[in-house]
Amino acid sequence: MAKKKRSKNDLAAKISEKLRVTEGFELSKLATDATPGFKGKKADAEKVMADQRAEIDDLQERLYANGRDGDGPSILLVVQGMDTSGKGGIMRHVVGSVDPQGISLHAFKAPTAEEKRRPFLWRIRQQLPKPGMIGVFDRSHYEDVLIVRVHNLVPPTTWRRRYGQINAFEQSVTDAGTHVVKVMLHISSDEQRARLSERLARPDKYWKYNPGDVTEREFWDGYLEAYQAVLDRTSTDEAPWYVVPADRKWYARLAVQQILLNELRSLQLDWPPADFDVKAEQKRVAAT
Amino acid sequence: MAKKKRSKNDLAAKISEKLRVTEGFELSKLATDATPGFKGKKADAEKVMADQRAEIDDLQERLYANGRDGDGPSILLVVQGMDTSGKGGIMRHVVGSVDPQGISLHAFKAPTAEEKRRPFLWRIRQQLPKPGMIGVFDRSHYEDVLIVRVHNLVPPTTWRRRYGQINAFEQSVTDAGTHVVKVMLHISSDEQRARLSERLARPDKYWKYNPGDVTEREFWDGYLEAYQAVLDRTSTDEAPWYVVPADRKWYARLAVQQILLNELRSLQLDWPPADFDVKAEQKRVAAT
């Protein structure tokens, strides 16, 4: 089932290729309301996503099955983006469509006092996916070169060293069998204003609103600069970044599903063979 | 939205009431292929489940929103059952339909060497849901009075004390704001044989097959006795057991969704009020 769909013209490969960060990529030139690689509308995207679910289920279960003996591959999907860029929607609609038994989701908040006393990658290491799992990070170690850089939470000599430390860390993670894909959801400043306004217009959305998010808008350009540095310095062949235009939520969800599906397909996993005598076991079961 | 559906005739309340363990309940008298409280067939059940999703989403999000300040209620759904009783299907089809950001799922395997050196509830405590979350246990501390009792893994004086220890523990959990619901998926021995045979007939299911599961079939009556003791001694008003006939997978899924929905409705949660000045924030956002 996995094999017949792996053509070069498929949507998952096409969108992944278009969004993957390559040398010379400039964040400031990306249209945040574009839909690269997809000509349809929202309803078309939703149909594509629904139609892909059986294949994703199949591939995810193969991944999980291969992890049962404790040494198969795993996937780590890192999701970053400004406030209101739609990370929660990705968790709900893309990650949420996968069997929860195969998902290890962690949302990184501002570090606790204990976490601050440790090296910045310490809390990240605790949450790495085990063999067979799809790990999902809602924010990540990249905050340590984003908000930390924008607000000078550590001296520049410290955050400057972190790009190399992150690359070395991710190299060790991929060496251990974890396939790392990193997604940045990219919205415009105008779109963020509209989304914050919407939260303030609906009492069922108040809980998502944080006055600090407005204060952060003053640092918009600083964040763009910090994201550009992340993309320039940490998008590697083995742990690439994908920048997803995210003003249209439906496109962002479609795109992240394509990136995940493309990665799952690339594993080309078969079902693990029986480690017992099938005929003998059939007889044993029948005899009980 | 939550309030108008809370009538005494609704399906969630009806099925929950029928499956809830009350004094004198006898496991051996339950028809494992019955569908208590539901007259429809598989397709009807699937439609009911799909139709309830929007309400579950709404109630789960209210729960999550109320947990944001660190002291709202939470839910703990404990799922137990013999091998092949369909625990994985519940995780995939019922738990999997809920926003993964609000789910904290943990599958308890045979205890590790470190876990064995600790009191049996130690590893359970680590996995209790935080405020706002729906915790789900795939197996649980009940294994410590099920497999442990059946195979005499500890002296009888030890496992006998555990019923009281479990009740005291669950009391402390509910006191802390966690609503505990416990589900036993109950299949017949014949149904288990059929499901084991099916795993042996399909190469994509071999990985789920464990020769030890057949060996365990010899202890079927011992497990029934151990489950009966669990139901007799640990089904309390605050942490009740529900026994779900599970020979029909579609009914088991429907039933567990009703039990979860019934519990979510019972919380009667409103959206948390704004802890900021809405008008002032609207002006701030518009000015950026």
Please tell me about this protein's structure.
Two copies of one chain form a homodimer. Chain A is built from twelve helices and five strands. With 288 residues, chain A is an alpha/beta fold. Chain A has one domain: Rossmann fold. A five-stranded parallel sheet of chain A has the order 2-3-1-4-5, with helices on both faces. The longest helix of chain A has 25 residues. The N terminus of chain A is likely disordered. Chains A and B meet through α3, β2, α8, α9 and α12 of A and α3, β2, α8, α9 and α12 of B.
Key features of this structure:
homodimer, alpha/beta, Rossmann fold, 12 helices, globular
Largest interface: A-B, 43 and 42 residues
What is the count of structural domains of chain A? 1
Order of helices and strands of chain A: HHEHEHHEHHEHHHEHH
Major beta sheet summary of chain A: 5 strands, parallel
Please give the number of β-strands of chain A. 5
Strand order of the largest sheet of chain A: 2-3-1-4-5
CATH topology of chain A: Rossmann fold
Average of per-residue pLDDT values of chain A: 96
Hey, roughly how much beta strand do the residues of chain A contain?
5-15%
